[in-house]
Design brief:
Largest sheet: 12 strands, mixed
Strand content: 25-35%
CATH class of the largest domain: Alpha Beta
Distance between the termini: 53 Å
Shape: elongated
CATH architecture of the largest domain: 2-Layer Sandwich
Radius of gyration: 24 Å
Number of domains: 3
Mean pLDDT: 95
Number of helices: 14
Structural class: alpha/beta
Length: 424
Amino acid sequence: MNKVNIGLIGLGTVGTGVVKTLRRFSNIEIKKIAVKSLNKKRNIENLDESLLTTDAFSIVNDKDIEIVVEVIGGVNPAFELIKTAILNKKHIVTANKELLAKHGEELFKLAGENNVVIMYEAAVGGGIPIIMPVKMTLGANRIDKIAAILNGTTNYILTKMDEENADYKEVLQEAQKLGYAETDPTGDVEGYDAAYKIATLATIAFKKRVKIQNIYREGITKISAKDMAYAKQLGYKIKLIALAKIDGNNADVRVHPMLVKSTHTLAHINGVTNAVLLEGEPVGQIILSGPGAGEFPTASSVVGDIVAICSELHKTDSMLPMMRCTHSENAVPVLISETTNKYYMLLSVSNTPGVIGTIGTICGKHNINLASLLQKESEEGNGKTAEVVVVTAKCLEADVQSAIQELSSSGCINEVINLIRVMD
């Protein structure tokens, strides 16, 4: 059997896992590996260092390389490298969620014009198989809802906060020491990573393009140990949820913290584990879960894509047709202000008679019904302040924001400390 030559761009955590995993396949040969530095010590036994190059464009322009594997992440230089590879008629395997979210439309169009395929299983679920199952196994379904935990760093932080009654900053520092969080964790904790992933997943599931700039995004930096404790008392866990729902052409796609009922499966996805819940017709509801990142879990998906391409290479004029982008219609974005949700509100109030009535009156004025309410005298404030937790019935986001403005300016409400949406 003739060996398939591949070029690997990136030899970090994922690239290292890809090299190690590919050693099991005698029909696949790595011809070149692009790296930033030739002098870095690699955690790979018997690595042939003659394969290494700092010139990534020598890979995408090499006529003998048939598959380019990109695992460096980010937009620059990944975009130009993949674009050049496609123009040179090379098939692509990528784990780059940001690139696909921002430039997927252009790259998939270019791939179609050049009759090559882009595979990207690792770009959404890490080690969780999700893209191929949605496109193929679930291809007969009309999927209309996704609720997912797509970032291991934030899920680890929220799990530790819940289990240890610890504050966000304390757990973040621990996560950084353990290597679960980057030195600059912004991409994870502010929800960017999950937003990139849900943009691609919703596009595939809904068969309509979901643009990253239309996705509402909110991170976990405002979540406190106090929120965790109140949520637990009310029968919830707090998770960073990537949510996508479609009704006709209208797509409500967003990433933000949510209170999830403690009896719900997603409430029990802990640590760095990820999970994707899909609702569709006729399948109903299914959940896929597993490691969302890491050397070998992500390499599993990357190498799976390589093997899928190799299995059809030189056997057909148009390989893997079901895995190609076949839609061009854009979904109509639903603004966050137009969504309806249940809400958790944590308020600091003056501990005086009538304050609960004021909260109820203001909420009622803005069409908000209260489902439950807790009041606790504040530990600081010498009995003069109290904390009130309100959980609403389902209501319009715009009404809630208007109510918060009025509550904030009310004489007896000191502060609206937090507002978190509640998952149905």
